Amino acid sequence: MVAIAWWWNDLRYVTSLVSRSTTSDAKLPPGHMGLPFFGEIFSFLWYFKILRRPDDFINSKRRRYGDGGGGMYRTHLFGYPAIIAWSPAVIKFVLQSDHLFPYSWPNSELVGYKSLSAAQGERHIQLRRFVSAQVNQPSALQRIALLAQPRMVESLRLWALKGTVTAFDEVRRLTFENIGKLFISMEPGPVLDTMVHCFVGLLKGARAQPINFPGTAYYYALQCRKKLVAIFRKELEKRKENESESQTRNDLMDGLMQVKDEDGNKLSEEEVVDTMIGLVVAGYEPSALASMWAIYYLAKFPMVLQKLREENMAIGGNKIGELITSNDVSKMKYTNKVVEETLRMANISAFIFRSGDEEVEYQGM
């Protein structure tokens, strides 16, 4: 019985996939899919949460299976069968093949079935185009730079007065305050504090086994999502009653409320709310982690900090009392390199989820 349980997922999924394959010599990457329902989640959490050495989860598989599959292993995580890609070549292939491997969360219930990550076809393209315009266009970058700076300047002043701060706590708070301003024009206060608390809970549940039972991280995450949905829906209703104020706000929620498809239909309330939640999830923790790691590495390499300070003072030093523009930011070449190197060294996203809904062959697998 123990042996059957140990190989249950392999017997269930691998046999089924091979039998349904369109090619007679179909192969899956080497690996082990673990126990029924749980798969390899306990081993995964052991390396990620307990030992805090996530690379060793992959290294343990490399020791057992070699580099089989060209940098891929089969497994079972977060309640679903999965393929782990670890080599740069395979990861590049997956990330550059959106049509084969669309972006997806394993537990879409948390982010929302109508969110950008869950949308398909033309709706996904439409939402992605709108979001890209909101954050990547020159006018959008200028607006973001002007909105975010006052809060950043004030935070730096307060940190200096404190003398010693916990970097991650402070940058996480600052990041969410800026998100609140940019996304729904919300100032710091009790509602924003509740949202921070709920998003932290939701993110923890997104990395947990999907067991919807009181006391589990997943159950708590679902409760957090319900609170967030209620907050966003209340804000939507307020805006519908005062549509004339949308021009003065010009934030992400107002923009989503005006998005129309090819038939002239606007997004439903559910689509707006799910997209808002999904975008906060995508931007909140990665931005905070990137800032925290930048502080860490700058403290570790004082020469880099000195060059960074010199560049920023050369560009912004003469703008006493004025805000730095997006054009000023584009001139900060060394600063940009510091950001890129921070992201390379820190690897702020431990894993990226993509779904595979059709059969794909890669190097014979």
Automatic annotation (TrEMBL):
The keyword Thylakoid does not apply. Keywords: Iron, Metal-binding. One of its GO terms (molecular function) is oxidoreductase activity, acting on paired donors, with incorporation or reduction of molecular oxygen. It comes from the Eukaryota. Pfam families: p450 (PF00067). One of its GO terms (biological process) is sterol metabolic process. This is Uncharacterized protein.
